[in-house]
Amino acid sequence: MNKLLNTLVELGKWFTDTAVNDQELLKAAEAHNGWFTKDSVISSFKSLSAMLEEDSLKAWFAQYNLGDQDESEGKTLGLIMAGNLPLVGFHDIISGLVTGCKVVVKASRDDAILPRAVVKKLEELNPSLKGRIQFVEGKLGEVDAVIATGSGNTTRYFDAYFGHMPHIFRSQRTGVAVLDGSESESDLEGLGNDMFTHYGLGCRSTTKVFLPEGFDLDRCFAQWVKWSDLSNHNKYANNYDYHKAIWLLNSEDLLENGFLLVKKDEGWVSPVGTLFIEYYSDAEDLANKIASYSDGLQLVTSRPNSPFRTLLSEKNSSIPQGNLGSAQCPSLTDYADSVDTIAFLQNL
């Protein structure tokens, strides 16, 4: 096994063997960003640990013929990272490492603690990586390529500053789920995990659910009870109360269970504390609708072996699909916005 691959395997073990119990780190992360609760951060640690399993890493390295890139080959990658989730930019950092880049990181103010802690651990595991990853507060400086993640509004600024060089610019996307009525209790519980983990703040979080006509939402509510403690989180509760007040003033029809507002809406991205739903009667019409919105989607989930998957793939094969419950556990090859980061970096 090459040294860098082994380092990443050991880092994956550290996430679940040590980091999940590091109370000082967990408290520092939450003190810095109130959305980064202990449960949210630990969920990210466990997801990254699964991503860094030895067999997965070996397959990833083999797929791209990645060598032992302990030392930089001269290219410098600039990263402007988002901060909506704990360690949301981790995959970009290791993508730079495995392709031999020096990595310059402008971390989000919302996620300033965890990336530095992880890089410090990487350097402890493999001292030859010291200096390969640098954090900056201001300008990126001289770089050969940029991967920048932000909102729709920031993309135009990214283009103005970095559009002349090789780049990947990412803006807001979301996840949707399609139910057909044959879901098991486990499937519906998984949907809840996709919705509520990280408070629905991720680009893979499910913010819209399409339901067949006549579907009984009480089936879902019964499986989502375990998330009722969300109502005790101040930031989440403020969002819930705010949208409830606004929508009631507007005489909107709502369903609520004390920690989630459910509203029929044609929008794709529901606010925190809420869920947009839409009923359908024709699966092919729904597939056409979702296929036409591909640039706004990170993931479409459905039950395993759902006939809808084939239907959607026929309409637009570029839209990533997955099982209910898998949204917050991306693999190494689940590239954001379906842009292959490794191929991009290897072509610099």
Account of the 3D structure:
- The strands form two sheets. Strands 8-9-10-7-6-11-12 form a seven-stranded mixed sheet, with helices on both faces.
- With 348 residues, the protein is α/β, with parallel strands linked by helices.
- Helices cover 40% and strands 16% of the residues.
- The protein folds into two domains: 3-171, Aldehyde Dehydrogenase, Chain A, domain 1, CATH 3.40.605; 174-323, Aldehyde Dehydrogenase, Chain A, domain 2 (3-Layer(aba) Sandwich).
- The two termini are 26 Å apart.
- It has 13 helices and twelve strands.
- Helix 11 packs across helix 12 (307-315).
- The radius of gyration is 21 Å and the shape is globular.
Which key phrases capture this entry?
16% strand, single chain, 2 domains, Aldehyde Dehydrogenase, Chain A, domain 1, 13 helices, Aldehyde Dehydrogenase, Chain A, domain 2, 348 residues, alpha/beta, five-stranded parallel sheet, seven-stranded mixed sheet
